[in-house]
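Handoff note, outgoing to incoming analyst
You'll be picking up this chain. Sequence as last confirmed:
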Amino acid sequence: MTTMTETSARFREFKMPDVGEGLTEAEILKWFVQPGDTVTDGQVVCEVETAKAAVELPIPFDGVVHELRFPEGTTVDVGEVIIAVDVAPGSGDAPAEPEPVQEAVAEPAAEEAPKGRQPVLVGYGVAESSTKRRARKGAEIPGPAAAAAQAEINGHRAKAAESRPLAKPPVRKLAKDLGIDLATVTPTGEGGVITREDVHAAAAPAPAEAPVRAEEAVAAPAPVEAVAPVGRETRIPVKGVRKAIAQAMVGSAFTAPHVTEFVTVDVTRTMKLVAELKEDKDMAGVRVNPLLVIAKALLVAIKRNPAVNAAWDESNQEIVQKHYVNLGIAAATPRGLIVPNIKDAHDKTLPELGEALADLVSTAREGKTSPAAMAGGTVTITNVGVFGVDTGTPILNPGESAILAVGAIKLQPWVHKGKVKPRQVTTLALSFDHRLVDGELGSKVLADVAAILEQPKRLITWG
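Most recent structure output, in case you need it:
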């Protein structure tokens, strides 16, 4: 939610917003603008890190940057002014400091209420209409020069909005990933909005991908900048995402009684299915890898054993059964491990699940995962195989009932049809909260996942 205050007819201040779930502070990681730069409504001006994620902040108005109140690396409380913008440049000499005025107060609607409000896409603002509002209390009536400058800004804003193709952020992300210029895409959505299908239709046939490693990463960490050692020790402040992770893991480990079970399974048929799906025209444009099939297998196992998809409510001493699956995918980033989740993953087809997984991974790799994307998870998958690890004993994501660890897929000697043959083999580990998942239920879930990966046709017969 954007927080701002009018400081005069000319200057506006942008405050540090609460970017998710009642957070109280955020660290300014990087400024993308400097004093004197021109900014437009919806332009990202800085990147901040909260206890949950790194988030880009867009400015909600046009103008010229007058002052940055805090340098990079500063932790700022929510509600503190971080940037002041001259919204009427050229109307006179700027004072040394913006002059604060009385906070704007919401006024009752005028007698002629608007007939309706047009839907707004992020970054576009509200379309011009005939709706009129009363003057704000304490607001200064701009002079002719200021009014002319503001009119010019509004004209530029309207022109930019008209020339920019309409598309939601996930669709813009997809177009960027596929190398598609949205200006060349013909929109079919209501109101001229470009849809995901429009982008796929505009995409040229993708070149053949390099073979995917069997233990392909969920989201491998980007290279971390080397820190020059000083003396015999280097001390790194624990803050932001990493601090929140440490607190959450300690809380989870000492609150929920963890039980972990293991199974080693022949996934040769699954690897063959992955290769076939890559050639399937219905999966064109979808990133197909073993993780996609494993995710679908876990969803089918949860459908067959719905009691595993639950949470423990300590305050009410209740088990909360979830009738939806928000599938978490643990992703390693330079700032630490984060667990964004695919909302309502249980309702998605295999191509839809593949698209959602690709969007989640690319966003995590760029460090742009939002707090909302990490909230509300029910069950998680963590792929430790990318590090060459056979398996592990994963700690539950707080508030979730189970987490599945996927080990490296390796060619190993295996007894198949009475003979020892080289087969693709992996080890799965399922950790679960023993307060609400007993050994029988946890074993059934893990056994179902293993059975599907051994015989992928069960995705059809069981799904």
